[in-house]
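Quick one:
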Amino acid sequence: MRRRLRDLFRARHPTRVVVAGFLAAIIVGTLLLWLPAASAGPGSAPIGTALFTATSSVTLTGLALADPAEHWSGFGHLVILLLVQVGGFGLMTGASLLFLLAARRLGLRGRLAAQAETHAIDLGDVRRVVLGVGALTLAFEAATALAIGLRLGIGGDVSPARAAWLGIFHAVTAFNDAGITIFSGGLVPYVTDGWIVAAISIAVVAGGLGFPVWLDMARRDRRPNRWTLHTKLTLATTGILLLVGVVAITALEWTNHGTLGTLDPEGRITAGAFAGVMPRTAGFNAVDYGAMRPETLLVTDVLMFIGGGSGATAGGIKVATLAVLMLVVWSEVRGQPDVVAFRRRIPVSARRQALSIAVVSAATVLAGTLALMLLSDLGLSDALFEVVSAFSTAGLSTGVTPDLSTPAHVLLGVLMFIGRVGPLTLGVALVLRESEPRFRHPEERPIIG
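Output:
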């Protein structure tokens, strides 16, 4: 047994540590939420509800079988908060450490290449990385908690202590892109409250950019010309996706009386902007997604599937993956053999890894959608939305989650877990398996297209 444990945590298998850590957190969270003290009602919550909630919290998804504000007690809310914090902080720290471990396995040339690309992570300074993640997390969460707490304490009808607690809880779930709220009625009552909407949206975007981006910008004295290629691609692609999401969702839902149509123009813009930011895999909903047009749901599907930045609290295939794939297509259209962005050539290995992650993720979503349709009476649109939301750990829902069968809930739980650890572990595994071939086969070109 001791030998097996030692083999499990060997550096040559760093992805196993991430998987084991998430599983352990889910098990502990399930047991705590199963306690009678965690339930707002008499007795303990059903074990299935506790397991689903713990999985949703640790994987930073936000899907729920019951209203968190009504179903869980104060102790239950505290457990959920801690699970979200562990899932978010652990993921960001784990991502940085895994990249460090991966770089150590590439040999001297590979390590130097990785260090030249990041410019931010010293291969030997693990302590600084962890402290940097902690400082970044606490800074954003404290600022968001202060903003929300002051707004509720001054302009709301809650006590200062309650306002402070609500500020802290939603700051943690916003920065970690978990999308869990303990407001009674969710964020619907605050759909036109620009202060709360802006505070949560900024925290969501900040958490979704990823720690490597923030560290790079901090170390480079905020000089854009010295940022790494990863930082430039992440910022540029995130900006485009945010603009597309806000404009598309606001325009499509402008006259829909089930969502934005009943609000005044200013309120429609505020609510539409909030709905355009949430597919960064945050999961907060201030409007009824079940009443959205099919076109809007499809746009949201695409945005959720893409997700946020690498090494971030967000899920999805990541914006850098999308950027690399789009650059590959653009290079092929122009007939250029090299893929270039910001005067930097992207290596073939990175292109293969991006394609592998995108294809595996798309296949997972396709298989999950088919399975959910077989396990329920959902149509294609609702089933696809639920599966993409679970896999990308977005947590948005058209409201069908509580009514699904137990096998369907198990399927969604598995998708949430795969979506949280899958792209990360797959990406690192691909890096770890890089090697120079000892021979090459004869080349022959198949017919494409």
